[in-house]
Amino acid sequence: MKFISTRNEENSANFEKAVLDCLPKDGGLYIPEDSADLRRWILYTNEKTTFSSISGTLTSAFINEEFSPIICEAIATGAFAFEPKLRKLEDKLYALELFHTPTGSHKDFGISYLINALEMIMLLKGETSIVLDATLGELGASVTRMVRGMMHIKVVLLYPTKPNRRLRGLSESDFVWNGGNVYPIEIDGTEEDCHNIVREIFARRDLVKKYNLTMANTVNIGRLLPQSFFYPFAFSRLKKEINGGIFYAMAPGNYSNLVAGLYSWKLSLPVSGFICPTTDELKIDPLGNCEILDSIVNVKDRKPCDPASPSSLERLEHVFNANSLMLKHFIYPSEVSEEETTHSCQELFMKYGIFADKPTGQAYAAAKKRREMTEEDEAAVVLVMRDHPAFSSEFIRHTIGEAPEMPENIKEVLKPTTLNRKMMKTAEEVIEIFQSL
Q1: CA dihedral in degrees (307, 311, 312, 314; nearest 10)?
Q2: Is the pLDDT of residue 13 over 80?
Q3: Which letter does DSSP use for residue 65 in this model?
Q4: Which positions ≥6 away from 124 have C-beta within 8 Å?
Q5: Tens digit of pLDDT for each residue in 319-339?
Q6: If I label 239, which of 54, 120, 308, 349 is the partner at 20 to 30 A Cα–Cα?
Q7: What is the DSSP string of 168-230?
Q8: DSSP 99
């Protein structure tokens, strides 16, 4: 399978190039060029089919012309010693929990897959790669854990020191100067200063090529693709329990999980639609259909996609443009108020014992507002829960009067880390670190 740019379908790349050179020169984002028909295989999966097995098969479907099935299976097996959990809440209502991971975040799935794929690519090339990202904590904690033991990858992480220090969730044994793979840098500035350094460095194509420089956020298609594996996994657990359709309810976030769900649909996954709360970009038109406001501006007239602040909205637009009529009947936004979110969080706790963070509450509220549609189809609703509720303890305590217990792995992610090294301010200082690696 080839990967093309959202801004120029003539600009294509194989999986290796799309992962390494994660931003096309035209300023767009890489997306799959086409999709395989995996309906027959998907229908043979069941509750005993592991997440890593599903991931290996889908990896082969995406990149079978580039890597052998054995290599595809090795990437998936190495990436996923953990998997999602599907819980039945009541008849036709389920929760897909994506936080049973090393750091309690759904990001671990995409990051672990990307790191394992990148390690395999570099191993076959006999080269090394540097992953650069700015982070406030969780992404850095995840990347640090996933890159342990890798021989061909180094990670450079930028942390802001203003308005307060954000370095957390790291272990000194992972630092490069202690024999590890991670080089954390405190930037004498704000989060935006960190982002500007990332933008400046990735604008230099010579550096991207020289250091095999890439990113671990969802700008990188290698981080996004594995999120499409969630939905076949859920279906494998649901197929014997339901007779109607399946709707997935989720908060849009940066739209990556929503786009990944649509990629699953393009792989012939049985799905009735995706329900989400509206956002500033994702709205409902006067006829009640989904619309994307950015679409009024031609992609060729926009600034390049931002490597430091990822959004998959442009990928979502591309799917809309290719299947505009059909997709109006696949994405169902609903306007959700703060009050409705609060009531939904309280209902989830009272009825099912779920500690719901704000995105989960919004998704559940959106699903309730679309209940007439789902009940008419006798469909099941799967509520997608992205991150461990302990990350939102204060919100949950304020909303329902009780906070979830904090597991040890979350405590480790939130634990401050002291870095007794010189702070930096410029992109050139960061580039000097690349040279030392």
Answers
A1: -90
A2: yes
A3: T
A4: none
A5: 887 666 666 778 999 999 999
A6: 349
A7: BS--GGGBGGGTSSEEEEEESS-HHHHHHHHHHHHT-HHHHHHTTEE-SSTTSHHHHGGGGGH
A8: -
User: Pairing relation of β-strands 93-97 and 85-90?
Assistant: antiparallel
**Sign of torsion over alpha carbons 109, 165, 419, 395:** negative
- Buried b or exposed e, range 384-398, using 16+ CB within 10 angstroms: bbbbbbbbbbebbee
Residue type, 335: E
Measured CA distances, 94 to 174, 284, 369 (Å): 38, 26, 17
- Both tokens of 219, joined, read 């700008």
pTM of the model: 0.95
Tell me the CA distances in angstroms from 218 to 22, 48, 196, 280, one per residue in order. 10, 30, 18, 20
Alpha carbon dihedral 109, 110, 115, 116, in 10-degree steps, equals 60
Report the interhelical angle of 256-266 vs 230-238 (nearest 10°): 60
Question: In the sheet that 246-249 helps form, which strands lie side by side, from edge to edge?
Answer: 85-90, 93-97, 380-385, 246-249, 273-277, 331-334
Task: Tell whether the torsion through CA atoms of 52, 53, 54 and 56 is positive or negative.
Answer: positive
